[in-house]
Amino acid sequence: MYTKNPSDLTATPSTMADQAAGKADQAIRSTQRVAHDALDGLSDSVNSATGRVSPLIDKATEQATAFAQRSMDAVRQTSQQLRDKAMHASDTTASYIRNDPIKSVLIAAATGAALMALVSLLSRSRHHE
User: Fold this and answer.
1) Tens digit of pLDDT for each residue in 76-117?
2) DSSP string, the chain
3) pTM tops 0.85
4) HSE-up of 10 (CA within 13 Å, CB side)?
5) CA-CA distance, 56 to 61, in Å (whole number)?
6) What angle do CA 61, 66, 70 make, to 5 degrees?
């Protein structure tokens, strides 16, 4: 009967396990390198995109702020012009009334009568529809 010498055995379970563990370690290291390289590339891409987008966002923010400021200035200016015109009209009316009170009362009465006639005419035309 032929018996094998233990030294002739090259692939024992322990050796196979060691080889498998070594291959698994190599696969893990290789995967880690690939993942690390991919993350480095992604990081570079993000940094590059951030470098390009950041100035655009800053410029858009500046333009929006400038537009908002111009809009507020225009509203203030228009509001002040309206106040000035209202004050001028009020002063002119008061001056006119002081200088010619009878004529002012007659103009006011005629204006009131014309407005009442217009309101009456409009309300009748709505009732007929």
Assistant:
1) 999 999 999 999 999 998 998 899 999 989 999 999 999 999
2) -----GGG----HHHHHHHHHHHHHHHHHHHHHHHHHHHHHHHHHHHHHHHHHHHHHHHHHHHHHHHHHHHHHHHHHHHHHHHHHHHHHHHHHHHHHHH-HHHHHHHHHHHHHHHHHHHHHHHHHHHH-
3) no
4) 0
5) 9
6) 150
